[in-house]
Amino acid sequence: MAFSLFNSVSVCTFPGHTQWKRFLNFQNRFHRLNLSSALQCKATTEVFGDVGVVRRSAGYHPPIWGHDYVQSLRSDFLRGESYKERASELRGEVSKMLCEMVDDPLEKLELIDTLRRLGLSRHFEDEISTTLKNVSEYCSSVQGEKQSLHATALGFRLLRQHGFKVNQDVFSSFMDEVGNLKARFSLDCKGLLSLYEGSYLLVEGETMLENARDSAAELLKECRKQNNDQYLSMLVDHALELPLHWRMPRLEARWFIGAYEKNKDKNHIVLELAILDFNMVQAIHQDDLRHASAPQSGKSRRDQTKVNALITVIDDVYDVYGTLDELELFTDAIERWDINAIQKLPAYMKICYHALYNSVNEMAFDTLKEQGIDVLPFLKKVWTNLCKAYLLEAKWYYIGYKPTLQEYIDNAWLSISYEQQRGDVPKSIQCYMHENEAPEEEAREHVKKLIEAAWKKINEEQMAKSPFSRTFIEIAMDLARVSQLMYQNGDGHAIEDGDSKDRVLSLFVHPIPWQ
């Protein structure tokens, strides 16, 4: 997403509430104009006084998360002392479990995996780190007929998820002479599932693991038909829809809590902690949302809302609203970073430019004052590159040019933030179809392979020696995951109904029944 460019620095701030209110009024009016017709890309002339200028409309749906609704969100889990005390007690019991599981390494691995999927692993980082340092020894010590596909694959995945280097050769004993899975594992549903999930941690060149994944996927479909375990069947269906490694952790936690409840071997202490912890975190998010929505909210919370709104509006200006002449003038003004360069811009662009100019300058001043670092050249360059990428796509649209897939990708790594819902520049699948005169199915398969190739690079980087913390690395990986989430089944960002609405409600509104 476009706002990911700003994750490495502190968020922007606007000089005053009056100017911010003016910007928000503009943003609201801007989106109302785009709602003038349910038809996508229908032209409209109702703009800030410039009657006769033909503009496109994005066909946005009306917002469903109003200010009053956000302010009404309340949860007893935020400040209830009884909840905090019970959560602390349960964390102590789980920590004790991790320390006492010494006789069965696999049981400990399974508990760690369960804690990760339930969103609880952050509470037990020291215990998990200590355990995983010994996992490689365990995986290499159990060989031949005694070796478990499930244990090996689970250990492989957990190690790579935490940045440890593990060779794909740990799976060699499960393969026959021609590189296929040995026949005796064809009905090992649990082992196949672990292999399939672990295979998505592969890197470039690991063909044995890639082939094993394809075999595991086909065998899992057959196992699914013969399996009577409801919990295991749910996990198989979930994995075949989208692998765990590509899923957003917090949304996965919400889903997995419901699935884990159906596990006949579930740990009731762990499950209770997961439900309680999820509801307490949800309450914190609700509190943050209320503060971000309120004009009198604190600076840091308000700033993030402002910068996201600013990026969204400017993206829309390029994508659907501005004329090509206006966009060229606006981009030139951004590149020159001169407030006097905006005289020829229409009113709505002047508001955008003032908001951006003052925001970036103040943020740079605050950073210099607090950290002694001059980030203004960097921020100007980031915004200039972003706007140039937007402008190139606008030019493609206005001249009717259909870029090649590579041309689109070279530009879109900066500009991408919306799916094709407005009939604008062709996106990746359409570019491939036009360039190669190929059907949509072939184009989708090609783009899927590009995504898989990108994940291989991500996997390799996250196992390399890095000056960044694991937390930072996980956040960076989550940016790829959120893109997959938002656009897997269409435009989940601009269209707020359907899957997007259900996800928001489950994460931020509806608590999980507890006790």
Task: Give a structural overview.
This protein is mainly α and 515 residues long. The chain folds into two domains: 1-9 and 62-72 and 286-509, Farnesyl Diphosphate Synthase (Orthogonal Bundle), CATH 1.10.600.10; 91-278, Glycosyltransferase (Alpha/alpha barrel), CATH 1.50.10. 63% of the residues lie in helices and 0% in strands. It is built from 20 helices and no strands. The chain has helices at residues 17-34, 67-71, 81-100, 105-117, 125-141, 149-161, 189-199, 207-226, 230-241, 249-260, 268-293, 299-321, 324-336, 347-371, 376-399, 405-415, 428-436, 440-463, 470-487, 499-509. The longest helix is centred in the middle third of the chain and has 26 residues, at 268-293. Residues 1-24 and 29-49 have low confidence and may be disordered. It comes from Hibiscus syriacus (Rose of Sharon). GO terms for molecular function: magnesium ion binding; terpene synthase activity. This is (-)-alpha-terpineol synthase.
